[in-house]
């Protein structure tokens, strides 16, 4: 029986689509800044934004303006950055592993970050005056370390496919989680702090965390978008891609490295926030097509929109702030179940 060879998606990203997506992102960010909790009033905050753009007189006092520019604005921008990083990484992981349920934490990034953060909380005393605190540094290094261990284990196992790497990620995740649990039991007084961090959140003051994560996410985003066409070609299969002069193993390694870098940067400043990397890429596919030349850039923008709005809900839904990871789980868990159901017949 003759086998018909599948073709890669040919959809190209239209400039109009990008413009619309960016306008939606801008609207979401302005809304989140203007309509935040507090007694400033959305009209006055909007007047402050307009005054900054036009050079006019602000209706806010100096203290009120500080609330907007040192609390709300950096938090909203950081939410957008973290959402873009997680959604873009999730889309890349789904393409590399050809699995619609893959997420940025698949290769041990979450377990490595959680273990490193727990060690810092338990053993490192609180410090002040550091340019970068020990907790985000440890989470960043732990996330990259977890992915690195998975890659080394997969290589040492002798397998060259994604299935071997996936199994290595499962083993590393289990091992690092066991270490985290053991460390937690050494000082049970810190369990609440560790638990709060693992639920995710953006309790930031000032712009430091944004500048900390921005370079890594920017580099990762450029690499992911630059490799989108190659990821489309990989959907044909490794043999076909190799016949076109592409080295599938190298392409996957570059994509996984970039996605892991973005994930590590996001985890370092926000803790563990789930479902963004699953929900957003699937919404993009449903609305704009399956080509990764479309999915990857629009996932970056869509992830920013998603997390900006989720963070707005987290800080305004109740008198006390909700953990951001709880809000994304409420939104993402039903969607995850839907994806699982629809992909059941297609996944081997």
UniProtKB/TrEMBL annotation:
Location(s) in or outside the cell: Cell membrane
InterPro entries: ABC_BtuC-like (IPR037294), ABC_transptr_permease_BtuC (IPR000522)
Record bears the keyword Ligase: no
Keywords: Cell membrane, Membrane, Transmembrane, Transmembrane helix, Transport
Any Pfam family: FecCD
Assigned protein family: Belongs to the binding-protein-dependent transport system permease family. FecCD subfamily.
Protein name as it appears in the record: Iron ABC transporter permease
